[in-house]
Fold:
Amino acid sequence: MDEHFAKIRTQLSSKLANQQMHATTLLAVEETLKEQGAEITPTAYFATLMSLLDQQKDDPEVEEMRAAILNLLAIVFPNVPVSVLRSQYTATLSVFTTILALQPAPTAPSMRSLVTCLEHLLIAQDSATWNHTTTLKALQTLLILSLDSRPKPRKRAQEAVRNIVTHPPLMMIVHPGMKVVVQTTLQILKESGNGVVGAAGSKDKENATQMILHTLQLVKMVGKAWPVEQFLPLCDILLHLPKLNNPYLTSSAFQVFESLLSPKESADAPKVVHQEETQTPAETLDEIVSRLAKVTQVMSAVLELKPNANDATLMPLWLDVVRAGFVESARLQDILKTAGQGADIPQEAIVPIIQLFKVIFPNLDSSNPVSVHNSTVDCLKQLITHCITDEMIDLAVQELRRNRGQQPDSKKKRNVIETVSATIKGGFDIRYQSSWLGVLEILKTLFERLNHAANPLLVSFLPIIDELRFTPAFTQKAHLDVVLSTAISTVGPRTFLDTLPLNIDNPEERKRGRAWLLPLLKSSITNTEFEYFATTLIPLADRLNQKAQECRENGMMKKVYETLIGQVWSLVSGFCDLPVDMELAFTKQVAERFSNVLYSVPDLRPVLCQALTSLVTRNQAIVASTESDEVLEREFLITKEEAARNIEILQQYSRPYLMVFFNIFQATLPQFRGYLLEVMRMYLSISTPKDLQETFSAVLVQLNTALTTVQSPVQQGDAPPASHNLMDLADIMVPYVDGQSMANLYSIVVSLFANDADAALQKKAYKIVNSMAETETGRVVLKANLEELMRNILDTTAAATATAKRARLSLIGQVISLLEPADLYFVPSILSEVVVATKEVNEKTRDVAYALLVAMGHKMKAGGVISTERVGDMEGEAVETPATISEYFTMVTAGLAGTTPHMVSAAITSLSRLLFEFHKDLEPSMVSEMIGTMHLFVNSSNREIVKSALGFIKVTTVSLDADVVRGHLQEIVSGMIRWSHEHKGHFKVKVRHILERLVRRFGYDDVVAFVPEADKKLLINIKKRRERAKRNKKNGSSGMDMDGDDDEGEEDTSKKSNKPLYMQTNFGSAYEDALYGSESDLSDDDEDDEGASEGKAAQKKSNKKKQGADAWIKEDGDTPLDFLDRTVVSRVTASHPSTQTPRKLKDLSSAFKTSSDGKLVIDDSDDENEGGNDEEEVDGETMELDQAENNYLESLKSVDGFTRGQGGRIKFNKTNKRGVLGKDDDTEMEQAGGAGPIRSKGLKDQRPVKLMGQDFKAKKAGGDVKKKGRVDPYAYVPLTSLRKGAKEGLSLTNKSKSEKRKSGKPGRRS
Structure:
């Protein structure tokens, strides 16, 4: 509502009278509420507007005012509380009824607004109100409007009726007003249907047809709320409509059928504002049975209305009705079966899948339209997905297994799956060739529905697909691959490869090789038999490896076999994705083979690690599943108990595998260890405590040995030393070990804090302790050794390397969270290091330092005691100081007395961050003192200090209250204005941004009062640009603009951030928005506004934003551009050609007088502009600049222009020579020899062709002729060719070589 009203307020100066009336009315209502002292709420708007509407309800002279009030009410009504709408129902309805009865009727916009108000008014009423006659009459009024001849009011009324009846009052299934809707619509349909049949003229028949169409549209919208008992009367009428032979009525009837048969709960159901937050009771079983019976009767009748298969309009609609009806029937039957009422389902209600396939599938005939094909495919896919039951699948599997090995009986009745399969097989006949892609989609859906039952029910399809795959005429191989992938995942790789073998290790002449199946197998195998991989595919890989060894001389074949080996082994991840026979297939031999491959074949390590990870994760997912074992077994062929046993099997191999992983980990470079980390964590999580203890103890022993061994320096690219690898392994194992093991590890790594000789080792030590702090067991260990840990951290401050800085700061943060109130001495002891860290080069380190500063502030704010005796390097008498946030600020402020600019700058930056976070917790006097102190640093001569001080001022301006900042406004402005002339370090831009912020908060007059006279030019420029931006925003925004907010006042920094892109990655913290955001939205041009020049610059800038990456084509005059020309690329430009044209000098002829006959009169007087206009004077400086610009453009685009490339080399404009010469096709060029004018004929070749001796050319002969009184033609033939190039010589006859050959004359002497 607020957004709509904000938009309407901006329309006060609109050129449209209705928009002005809306804005005037709204402002008048708001002014009235302000005068009365009432709070501006939706209820207040409602009361005022309804009172105003009551006064204007029956006056026909104030239609515009009434329309404006209704429009505002339509915006207010969705926000009015339900209780208000119920209490004011009678009075409000009376006003609306009076307006509806006016003559002439309200306009269409007024009617739409009135319908919206009436809709929300009726939705808010309870069941008792709906028993009143007036309420039902109001609904009847909406029904009448839903048949209005005007499209927009009719549609809005239909939507209102839909929203009302589909959301009944509390604890009601059918809306009380639905009875009125049913009676009205059925009566209109009957009368209009009779009117169509017995119409005397075409006009009456057309009117009756229109009335039926409007009514059907209404019924379609309310179809989901149609009561079951009125189902058959409506269907009788709908089934009668196709007999009228009107395609529009038939189409609409089918659409209504689809709406009626669709599920009542729809995802696209409209959201109603005033619907109560209560749950409507679900349908009872009796109601479901009744609805199922009605749907069954309707669908039996619909099947008899099948239109012609060639009808591209009606057939898709009929298929949609069939799909919706039988899917709804299947849904209702599933509900009854789930409730244990499957016996109540009548036999005729069972979906006739066999009959439907026989009736619908022939629509895929190649002679039918494409739209019929698409609808048929969609319909059959939905029927397969929803109407084939589990009982049908189980019955088909049992019959197939029972009849295996027997002769097929042709007289025996086929089951549903057999019939559907046979029908789809027939779809691969030549008559369905144009629909084969659709048949493949249907087959894919059948594979998915049968899932594991596809083996053996659908195995017979595999040879058909394979044969089609090898058919050269079939080009849609990708669609076949999709079906094959689905078949692999459902049938299983064993059956699939037995039917379609790979034939890659020992191919025979008559067997097809199918190596192309390997990528499909890799992406499709899942939830299958692992034993097949162990007994079939691993030996296959071994045989391929042997063949590769035999092909030492043939490098090509060896590479092929190696590739095949990798593809075969890549299938292991699919076989390990929830195998169904893991207890039997994952033997010790297989586990050892995996270990050997991990050691011997580095290229296969990622695949095997992924497979071993999947073995754990997928079984864990089954164990944690909330589904029943019955559902899991049908879906995955495995139960929770079996999955738990699989994990126990893996536990037996966890320790051997971990040792393998550890050894590989140490032999792998750090950048390639990602997959190893994942698999190690997975097997650590399932290992027994005993195995973990033994493994971790072995790692600690090796770590101690490695740390005591002198190691040579590591060169770049070499494997890390053993100590580094073992530290990484220990870090990985920290979350899984017990307290004693963790204490042993702590005692080892804490001594490495002082090891500044190996920065990487020091960093890993900090990371391990951080990992310990992230676990409950580790925090207990650290708390027990907290005093020692703090002392170690303080003692190793000087030894901390830059590489370990971030990890060290993270550890300090963990220590701060563990501190007791009596141990807060650690905060001042470590504070200086944290403050200096805010100036680190590494961005992530700075972020951690800022977060640590805030965490320390919260710890101090929580209270405690600081014992100065325990603070290192603290002079004076030992005292105990209470910990407060003010005391914390005092500690940070001490850094302002630092001996280096770097320290002072860090202290200022830290204060700005803390002030932003805790400014509400500080005393005003302390805040004022800090602002005054910053005034001294702003006047510093050190740029680093000043830059931090300006950042502090900006944070102060943004975060503190205006009253606090106003008291220091003079100090702030006068202190930083001296830096407005400094361009280095962007000081000038920073100052201007802060000044703009101050102007927005305090106004121009308050700020400019403290600016020296010499610097007021900057403030004036800011004011002008702000005013110009507001004008542009006002002029550029239309009446429908939603963003018409005034720029005055404080800008919400949380809505828009103008900080640099690299700062936008820092999680969008409010502090960074304040420090780096809230920048000026205006141009960075600091010059004064000189009128049009700056306006044009701003316009160009906005145009660039709008254009984005658009490209433009330069054309010359009216000549069309030849896109086949090679030089056309030079005509493409990234900016608009109009912006590239050089500025033209003013016409100098306007400076002279003209006589009555138009001749120029040039006076001899030396006085310039005598009697002329001063505005026509040509500025010499402007002319000089224009000429300089033209010369620059000429150097870039002219024939003789050049540019300088890398190293200062000159590069001539070859493209321009081809593209600029002959630029104007209508320009005539005189030859040097006077041969006459030559006209360029096109842009294909824009180089001028000098045809010599044009005047001497014979009209019929092949050469030149002598003319009377003229010189001989050969006298003008030069000895050098005019055209360069070996293949381009001078032709004396102006004929090409091909023409000479045609005339029998040789083009060249032999």
